[in-house]
Amino acid sequence: MILNSLLGYTGNMLDRADHLRRDSAAIHAARMHPTARFLILEDLKPMMAEGGAELFWARRSECPEGQQVFLGLDSQGEPRFAVDGKPDDDLPCVATDARAAGAILADGRAAIIAQARSVLDWHRRHGFCANCGAPTRPEKAGYSRQCDACGAEHFPRVDPVVIMLAEKDGMALVGRGPHFPAGFFSALAGFVEPGESLEEAVARELHEEAGIRVHSVRYAASQPWPFPSSLMMGAFAQAEGLELALDESEIAEARWVSREEVRSVLRGEGAWSAPPPLAIAHWLLQTWAQQP
Predict the structure, then answer these.
(1) Which residue from 106, 107, 142, 221 puts its CA 20 to 30 A from 3's CA?
(2) How confident is the model over 56-86, as pLDDT tens digits?
(3) What CATH code would you report for 18-121?
(4) Nearest to 218 by CA among 277, 291, 165, 255
């Protein structure tokens, strides 16, 4: 069963087949198998088939040189890989921004992009050991890097982020960061810091950014966000009051909005704009607005 299948970048239907990652001979056999297919990412942009509605899965003979990652097995047991490289110009595909591709694709295909992009980006950033500075090499079908100098093993990172709606008296808090365009509002968000729970991160971020105190934090849903490797964890929280004190370095503008106002905005009829359906912020607003 796929949970929260309406959220962007979720619902990956591939069997990640972790047991194969530890078997280099099995991975080599999978790579050589005639049914193996490769998702090429050029500058971390997935290749889409001409027409833009499908991922382009290259054959091994069409695959460029570059870092490869085993993605898993499809429903027929056929191997799927991702490769960081530039395809031949004569292939019927086009490099597409991962956000644009994620907005187009449904039924778990965008989640494959999230998996491929995050892991390949991690390889780009972690060619050297954080412990001793020596070069590292990929292991476990692309899901670790080994340092032969000091023996350290490194794994792809996932950065936890809380994204939340505070609510009070039938109103929800939305904000606009300094980098957002005028009239664009979203749920507030921030990275989880070392040594704190998700609930504590929600309360801290809302107090730091908006000056409000909250309680009764409740988790709602999560979404991978591969830019480069965040895990967005959505939540709702009850605010103690409506008075705001903004950290203007983080929040340029914030406002309390009603459910009817949010419904209008999501219909494209409001006075401001919200994040697109691809983003969990859209899901949070929609979920809140549908409540009686």
Answers:
(1) 142
(2) 999 999 999 999 999 999 999 999 999 999 9
(3) 3.90.79
(4) 165
